[in-house]
Amino acid sequence: MSETGVLVQVQKLKKHFPITQGIIIQKEVGAVLAVDGVTFDIYQGETLGLVGESGCGKTTAGRTILHLYQPTDGRVVFDGQDLTTLSSEELRRMRRRMQMIFQDPYASLNPRMTIARIISEPLRAHDLASRKEQVERVQELLRLVRLNPRFINRYPHEFSGGQRQRIGIARALASEPEFIVCDEPISALDVSIQAQVVNLLEELQEEFGLTYLFIAHDLSMVRHICDRVAVMYLGRIVELAQKDELYNHPVHPYTQALLSAVPVPDPPLERKRQRILLEGDVPSPIDPPPGCNFHTRCPRATDTCSKEEPFLHEVKEGHFVACRAC
Tens digit of pLDDT for each residue in 92-149? Predict the structure, then answer.
């Protein structure tokens, strides 16, 4: 780990998906700007929340950080190593230290493989254990995620959604990673199960010193589990701060609108609250507006906002905002 305590540095990261036309000769006619220049650090042992409405690029950012998607531009530095400069073999070795928990516990597990084979896959890929040791390790991992170790020869269809997500967590832990991207790990689960999975993630983090990037759109859950929160809009980070600072003193107009939609479990207070309703629709990532990509819906927008792109600047210690009107 670096001397500053930063485990992951994301610098001006971009991921653009090309749009092509033609059957035989394909010509690129445009691109989907899914992630368009995001910058942030993730510190050792912390949980950084990445929030925003559906389609803003959260999942793409997580996958690009792990190089499941090849970045279009920018850098990802993990423990001092620039992942964008590594060869495929060096990157494969580095992947042992970085894992992902996927959103859909039904689609992320191979239905033709037993639980033992699914969880031991990272062990085989990185040659970390013999066959006998793999069985022992899988049983140990099942105990860690509160599942019966006798389940190793069962198939995914024999488990509930919450149990499948625990299997996904066990698989992510198999290679003893330091950094895990949690891609909306509870959004597909029943509300009664969500808290159990989040508590499990917190316990595992404390026990193994894990670092999380927690991608979600449930802002109440993000406030519970995360240390800092980054707000994303149309492929860019618009605000980043400690969770209490962000929730109590949001600066960016989009963050204010987003937080105004979070229900408060206090009926009298909820009735007094004023919702901030944004006009218009989210622009297309194929053709985002010039300047600040939020200016078409922003109540504070000026002429400058439509011409000049804002950059994250520090408005208070540890509180960063990308807004020229703030």
Answer: 999 999 999 999 888 999 999 999 999 999 999 888 888 889 999 999 999 999 999 9
Task: Place 1 in a pLDDT band, splitting at 50, 70 and 90.
Answer: very low
CA distance 246 to 124: 42
C-alpha distances out from residue 11 to 48, 75, 238, Å = 16, 5, 15
Q: Return the CA Rg of the chain.
A: 21
Beta bridge partners of 15: 35
What is the secondary structure of 127-189 as a DSSP string?
T-S-HHHHHHHHHHHHHHTT--GGGGG--GGGS-HHHHHHHHHHHHHTT--SEEEEESTTTTS
Positive/negative CA dihedral, 160, 166, 169, 170? negative
C-alpha–C-alpha distance, residues 222 and 219, integer Å: 5
Site of tokens 């980070």: 237
pLDDT for 91 equals 92
